[in-house]
C-alpha cells in the first residue's frame, strides 16, 4: 500500500492528515510556519486520495490509522505530533486509542468521533461510484467555507473544488464508508496524548457540539471554537488555526 507523502524541515515530526475529498495540498498554509518553528512536517494523502493507492473499499478507520503507523515505520519515526482535520481527525482519534506509543500529541480539528448521518454517507458512496465526483465537488466548497470567504477568494475556492473533483471516486466512496457508522466515543477516556480539539463556529458539516464531545471525553483536552470558520478552518482561519497548533506542539517540547 503506497501512502504518498511529502516532508519538509527538520526536528520533531508533525504529521498532517487531510479531510475527505482533499489531498496533502490542503495543509499549504501550515507547512512554512511549522518548519520555521523547527518542526519536520510529514503530510500525506489518505488512502484513496491524491497520489496514494486506491485499494478497493470499503475502508475502515483502522485501515486509515494503520497506514499512519506504517508510514511512521517507513520513516523510522518512533512517535510524532498528529494533526488531523475532519476525516484526518477521526484517524487521529483512532491512533490515540490504538497506537498511543506512536503519538506525542493530538490535534483533532473540525471533526467528530461519531459523525452520524449514516444514510447520507452511504448514499454519497453510492452516488460517486455511480456518477463520479462532479456533484459532490460542487457541494463540498459550500460546506468547507463560508460564503464570505468564497466571495473573497474565488480562485482559491475553484482550485480547492478541483482537488475534490479529481479525487478517485472509489477512494472517496470507500472513505465515506469508513465515516458511516463510526463511533469512537467509548474509548475517548483512554487517550493519554495531550489533546487540542478545534471546531468551527460556522461548520454545518460537523458542528462544534461534536468537538465538545471529544473534548469532554479526553482527559484534560483543550477545546477551541474558531469564529468565521466553516469546515476547512485551517484555510479560512489559517493564522489562528496555525497559532493554536504551534502553541500545542511547542508546549510539549
Ligand atoms: O462533507 C464534507 O466534505 C465535510 C466532511 C465531513 C467529514 C469530512 O472529512 O469532511
UniProtKB/TrEMBL annotation:
Molecular-function annotations in GO: 3-oxoadipate enol-lactonase activity
Keyword ATP-binding appears in the UniProt entry: no
Superkingdom of this protein's organism: Bacteria
First-tier enzyme category under EC: hydrolase
EC number: 3.1.1.24
Residue ranges of domain AB hydrolase-1 in the record: 13-236
Keyword hit for Hydrolase: yes
Gene3D superfamilies the UniProt entry points to: alpha/beta hydrolase
Record keywords, A-Z: Hydrolase
GO biological process: beta-ketoadipate pathway
SUPFAM superfamilies in alphabetical order: alpha/beta-Hydrolases
NCBIfam families assigned: protocat_pcaD
PANTHER family linked: AB HYDROLASE-1 DOMAIN-CONTAINING PROTEIN, HYDROLASE, ALPHA/BETA FOLD FAMILY PROTEIN
Name the record gives this protein: 3-oxoadipate enol-lactonase
Species of provenance: Amycolatopsis endophytica
Amino acid at each position: 500500500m503506497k501512502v504518498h507523502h511529502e516532508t519538509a524541515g527538520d526536528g520533531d515530526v508533525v504529521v498532517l492528515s487531510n479531510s475527505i475529498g482533499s489531498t496533502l495540498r490542503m495543509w499549504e498554509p501550515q507547512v512554512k510556519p511549522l518548519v520555521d518553528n523547527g518542526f519536520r512536517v510529514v503530510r500525506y494523502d489518505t488512502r484513496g486520495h491524491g497520489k496514494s493507492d486506491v485499494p478497493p473499499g470499503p475502508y475502515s478507520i483502522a485501515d486509515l490509522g494503520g497506514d499512519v503507523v506504517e508510514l511512521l515505520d517507513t520513516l523510522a519515526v518512533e512517535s510524532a505530533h498528529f494533526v488531523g482535520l475532519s476525516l484526518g481527525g477521526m484517524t487521529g482519534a483512532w491512533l490515540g486509542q490504538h497506537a498511543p506509543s506512536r503519538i506525542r500529541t493530538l490535534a483533532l480539528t473540525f471533526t467528530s468521533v461519531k459523525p452520524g448521518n449514516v444514510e447520507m454517507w452511504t448514499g454519497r458512496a453510492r452516488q460517486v461510484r455511480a456518477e463520479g465526483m462532479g456533484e459532490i465537488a460542487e457541494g463540498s466548497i459550500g460546506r468547507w467555507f463560508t460564503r464570505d470567504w468564497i466571495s473573497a477568494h474565488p480562485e482559491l475556492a475553484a482550485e480547492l473544488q478541483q482537488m475534490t473533483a479529481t479525487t478517485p471516486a472509489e477512494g472517496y466512496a470507500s472513505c465515506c464508508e469508513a465515516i458511516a457508522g463510526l463511533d469512537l466515543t467509548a474509548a475517548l477516556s483512554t487517550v493519554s496524548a495531550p489533546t487540542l480539539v478545534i471546531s468551527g463556529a460556522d461548520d454545518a458539516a460537523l458542528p462544534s457540539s461534536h468537538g465538545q464531545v471529544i473534548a469532554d471525553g479526553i482527559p484534560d483536552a483543550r477545546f477551541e471554537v474558531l469564529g468565521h470558520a466553516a469546515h476547512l478552518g485551517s484555510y479560512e482561519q489559517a493564522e489562528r488555526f496555525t497559532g493554536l497548533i504551534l502553541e500545542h506542539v511547542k508546549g510539549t517540547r
